[in-house]
């Protein structure tokens, strides 16, 4: 989480973890968990709790915490419920909350199953006349590009990774993918002019459409904080599994991390 969310260049962006550390005076938390674990963990736990509260406020349509509940109020007869009924109602509300944070269960389950099966059975070459099978998706793509240059290779996912989580080369004309970001950087440095790409990004003129810029900015802010909430909930779940000595739940969490 430190490498994902705690970046010095984001200090001027209000709401980021680094900016919040500066604002709260939690300078020790910026030293990374390997140097000051307790300070880092305490800050990240409190920040996750703040994200949870903020998400609940969005779900309940609250602008301030003291506002009376109008959307999804607590049932008037809740005091007369049994423990089982209260637990069932709370579980349903929590499920509704998580549905707006995490991936859809069926999509995530299918994705995990497909990736797990592919890594166990291998990745077959997608050329109709080739029977070669590879242990890594990146090796398959490298083979297809060199041996079957005319093959139409799907290029899904986002600008940074494909649908299986492999890193894409950031040269728009290069279709190679890599298992790690370090491997991708080495490839870009050896085969492409990385500095040229950086300069090209600097020379690009921003779009003139202010409305599109605002929408993009809002989308980026939402994606950042939703990702921060997802990671925070996952870490809290792992910590709780360790506390409760729930090995099965911990293994499930670790499987999600490896995806």
Task: Describe the protein in words.
The chain is mainly alpha-helical. Among the domains are: 91 residues, no CATH class; 73 residues, no CATH class. Helices cover 57% and strands 3% of the residues. It has ten helices and four strands, in the order H-H-H-H-H-E-E-H-E-E-H-H-H-H. The strands form two sheets. A two-stranded antiparallel sheet has the order 1-2. Strands 3-4 form a two-stranded antiparallel sheet. The longest helix is centred in the last third of the chain and has 34 residues. The protein is globular and about 70 Å long. The protein starts with a helix and ends with a helix.
Classify the helix fraction into a percent range. 55-70%
Strand order within the widest beta sheet: 1-2
**Assembly classification:** single chain
Overall pLDDT metric? 81
Q: What sequence of helices (H) and strands (E) makes up the elements?
A: HHHHHEEHEEHHHH
Distance between the termini: 15 Å
Shape: globular
Main sheet record? 2 strands, antiparallel
Q: Helix count, per DSSP?
A: 10
- The unreliable regions are 196-207, 210-217
Strand percent estimate: under 5%
Q: Rg from C-alpha positions?
A: 23 Å
Number of strands: 4
Region (Disordered): 195-219
InterPro entries: Znf_C2H2_type
Biased composition (Basic and acidic residues): 195-207
Structure described in brief:
The chain has helices spanning 2-5, 17-24, 37-59, 83-99, 105-121, 137-147, 181-191, 194-203, 210-243, 247-258; strands at 123-124, 133-134, 167-168, 177-178. By secondary structure, the protein is mainly alpha-helical. The chain has a two-stranded antiparallel ribbon. A two-stranded antiparallel sheet has the order 3-4.
